[in-house]
Amino acid sequence: MATTVGVIGGGQLARMMIPPAVELGVTIKVLEETPGMSAELAATGVGDYRDLETVVAFAKTVDVITFDHEHVPQHVLRALVDAGVPVHPGPDALLYAQDKLLMRQKITELGLPSPDWAAIENADELGAFLDAHGGRAVVKTARGGYDGKGVRIVDDRNGADDWFTALAEDGRGGALIVEELVDFVRELAQQVARRPSGQIVAYPVVETVQKGGICAEVIAPAPNAGSAIAQAARDIAVRVAEGVGVTGMLAVELFETRDGRVLVNELAMRPHNSGHWTIDGAVTSQFEQHLRAVLDLPLGETRPREAWTVMINILGGPAGASLQSRYAEAFAAHPAAKLHGYGKESRPGRKVGHVTVAGSELDSVLADARAAAALFD
Amino acid sequence: MATTVGVIGGGQLARMMIPPAVELGVTIKVLEETPGMSAELAATGVGDYRDLETVVAFAKTVDVITFDHEHVPQHVLRALVDAGVPVHPGPDALLYAQDKLLMRQKITELGLPSPDWAAIENADELGAFLDAHGGRAVVKTARGGYDGKGVRIVDDRNGADDWFTALAEDGRGGALIVEELVDFVRELAQQVARRPSGQIVAYPVVETVQKGGICAEVIAPAPNAGSAIAQAARDIAVRVAEGVGVTGMLAVELFETRDGRVLVNELAMRPHNSGHWTIDGAVTSQFEQHLRAVLDLPLGETRPREAWTVMINILGGPAGASLQSRYAEAFAAHPAAKLHGYGKESRPGRKVGHVTVAGSELDSVLADARAAAALFD
Fold first, then answer.
1. pLDDT band at residue A168 using 50, 70 and 90 as cut-offs
2. What InterPro entries does this protein's entry cite (chains A, B) (predicted)?
3. What's the confidence (pLDDT) of residue B145?
4. Which of A284, B13, B66, B216 is the most exposed place for a label (fewest CB within 10 A)?
5. Which fold has domain B4-87?
6. Chain A within 8 Å of B343 (Cβ-Cβ)?
7. Taking CB atoms and an 8 Å limit, are B335 and A298 in contact across chains?
8. pLDDT per residue over B337-353, tens digit each?
9. Which chain A residue shows the shortest CA-CA distance from B280?
10. Which is nearest to A295 in space by CA: A199, A195, A191, A202?
C-alpha cells in the first residue's frame, strides 16, 4: 500500500491529520504556504500551491496527494493527474467544492434539494429574483468564498453591483449565485467518507450553530433528528459523494426547514469543522478516516463513543495572550474538556482551536463545553 | 506556562506523546538514540543519553525534560537538576524505577505489600531463600532489566552464579534480588499521574496478560475487580507516587493473589504498555496526562469512554513484511479496531504496534481485538 500521504496546505486541517498518521504508522508530508504554519511539524516543503513546479516537486516525494483546503487550481490538479499522481479528491470532484455555481447546477442535476437559486449576471436578474422571493435573498460569489466571505444578504437589486463589476473586470466574466433566504429551523451537517474503490461510510448527522458565517458549535448527533431527517441527510451526502466522485471526506452543510425537509447549503471535500467532534467522540476520527480513504484502505467505524459530543470553536482566542495562558484555569475547572490548539496566533475571529466534551447527558456536556471554551475568549 | 517538552529517548513511548502534544498545541522535541527511530517526526537531536554534554545541549532547547525510558544515568539527571532544568520524573524518584533493589526496600519501607524478598550476594544466600520458599524463586538483577530481561526463575542455589560473577566483575559489587514465586490469580496494573505540585489522578485498575515476560494483552477495567481490589490497587499506587515523589505517569504492576491481596511487582515511571488502552479508551490518554503532569498543568479526567477496552500488543509483526501490508485485510474485517504502528521494523518478539477495541460487551470486544491483532502475526 501507499504509505506516504502528501498534504497541500499547512493549516489546522493538515495539522489534525498528523496524530492519526502517527498512530497508523503512515508518513505525512505537508507543503505549507509559509514557514511556521499550523502543520509545521510535518512540513517538508514551503511554497505556493498555485505554482505547478512547486506542487509537482512536492508530489514526487509522496505516494498520494490530498489537501488542507480546496484552493489548488484546476490546471495544477490536472497536471498532477496527468503525471500519474493519485490525487484525492480528484479535480473532477474538487471542481464542485471550488465553484458554487457548478455545485448548485450539479446538486440540481442529481435531483437533490437546494434552496431556490439562480445564476445571475446583472442587477436586473437579481431584481427579478428578489421580486419573486419576498425582496430578500443570499448572493454568493461562485469562487473564493469561505467562512462567511463571498456571501451576502441582499434586499436591493443593486446590492451586488460591486461583485458584478469585479466579475466584469476579471475578464473571465461568469455569474453570481442568488439563493432564497431559507427560513430554516437549524443547520445540520452530514459527513461521509468515500474510498477511490467506492466504499462509503457515513457519520451521524450533526447540528451546527454558525456565528457570523463561521461554525461556532457542533452537537453530535443532532438532537431530535428523527430517523427521517437523519436518513435524508445521509442519502443526500451519499448521492453527492457518488455523483461527483468524491474521495476522502465530504461534508454536506444542510438547512433543516420548518416543514421537515433538508436542503443542501454547501459542500466541503476535506475534513471539516463540523467533524472535529469525531477526534474525541467517534471510533474513527474524520482525520483518520480521510487518511484511510485517500490511501484506499477500508474505512473505520463511525459510531460515537459516547451518547453526546459537543465541539466549540475558539474564535480569536484570548486578546494579547496565548491559548496556553488559559490552560491552567481551563483544565482545573474542566477536566473532561479536550482542548485542541492549532498553533496559530490569536487574531479576532480567527479559528485558533476548539474544545470538545463528550458524555451521557447533553445538557451537562453542552454546559461544560461552553464554559470551558469561554475561558479562551 | 512551559510549552516545550523535551523527551529523552526516541522509542514508541516518545512517539505516542506526539499526537497529544499536537492536540494540546505544545511543542515536543525528542533526543533520539539513532536516526530514524520511532519518534523520528519530533526528533530534534540524535545522541547518547548517557553523555552529559549531549543531554545538556538538548535540555537547553526545551522547557522541561521527560523520558521515553528510565535509563538516563543518575549523574546526568542530577547535573540537569543542578543546572536548573525541570526534570520529570526527577532523579530521586527515578532511582526506584532504575534499581529494583532500592525499589523493594522503598516499597517495604512504605509499608506496602511485596512478595517475600531478599537481597542476596551469593549462592548461599540464594540457597537459604530457596529452602524457605519451596525450592523455587524469582531472581532479578537490580538494574538493566525490562520486558522479561534480567528476570529468571531459579530452583537451584547455583542458578544465578553467572549474575553474581558479572556483579563481582563489574567492580561496583551489589546484590541480586530474590523474590518468592507468587501463586497469583492474575496480574493487574494500576496507573496514576502526579503533578509536581502534588495533584494525583488514578486510572481504573486493569488486567494484564504477560507472555514471556512481555505485556501481551490488557483489559480495562480489570474484570471482576471488586471495590476492595480496585481500592487497594489505587491506594498502593497513590502511596508510591507520593512516597517516592513521582512526577508524570506511574504504573504499578501488581499480582492479585488467591486470597484477594495485591502485591507490588514492578514500577514504571513513564507512560506504560498497560496504559496504551487509554489512547482510544479514556477521556485523557496516559500520554496526554504525562504531558500535562510534566508541564504541571491540572490533570484530565481518567474515565473510560466505553464499558470495556482491550489492548493487544503486536509482537514481532508479520515475518518479512511491514505492518502496513496487513492493513487492508485487518481494516476490512475489523472496522472498530484501532491500529497503532510504531514505525519500527518487524523482528521476533519486538513490540511494533498494538490494537485497541472498545465497546459495551467484553466478550465481543476481546474477540474482535484478538482477531484483529492475529492478522499481524
1. confident
2. ATP-grasp, ATP-grasp_carboxylate-amine, ATP_grasp_subdomain_1, PreATP-grasp_dom_sf, PurK, PurK_C, PurT/PurK_preATP-grasp, Rudment_hybrid_motif
3. 60
4. B216
5. Rossmann fold (3.40.50)
6. yes
7. yes
8. 999 999 999 888 899 99
9. A283
10. A195
DSSP, collapsed to helix, strand or coil, labels residue A311 as strand
Nearest to B353 by CA among B314, B312, B320, B310: B314
ipTM: 0.95
Every domain of chain A and the residues it spans: 4-87, 116-180, 184-374
Sorting pLDDT into bands at 50, 70 and 90, what band is B150?
confident
User: Whole-angstrom Cα distance, residue B191 to residue B70?
Assistant: 17
Over residues A325-340, the pLDDT tens digits come to: 999 999 999 999 999 9
SS3 B138: strand
pLDDT tens digit sequence for A75-84: 999 999 999 9
What is the enclosing helix (H) or strand (E) of A23? helix A18-24
Is it the case that residue A145 has pLDDT exceeding 90? no
CB distance B263 to B114 below 8 Å: yes
Q: In B129-157, which positions are buried (b, 16+ CB within 10 angstroms) versus exposed (e)?
A: bbeebeeebbbbbbbebeeeebbbebeeb
SS3 assignment, position A377: coil
Average pLDDT over residues B306-331: 94
**Partners of residue A41 in chain B, C-beta under 8 Å:** 18, 22, 41-42
- Which range of B164-173, B213-222, B250-259 scores highest in mean pLDDT? It is B250-259
What is the CATH code for B116-180? 3.30.1490.20
How distant, in Å, are the alpha carbons of A191, A196, A277, A278, B208 from that of A311?
15, 29, 5, 9, 34
Q: What nine digits make up the cell of B73?
A: 544515568
**Residue A354: Cβ-neighbour burial (10 angstroms; 0-12, 13-18, 19+):** buried
Amino acid at A166: A
CATH superfamily of A184-374: ATP-grasp fold, B domain (3.30.470.20)
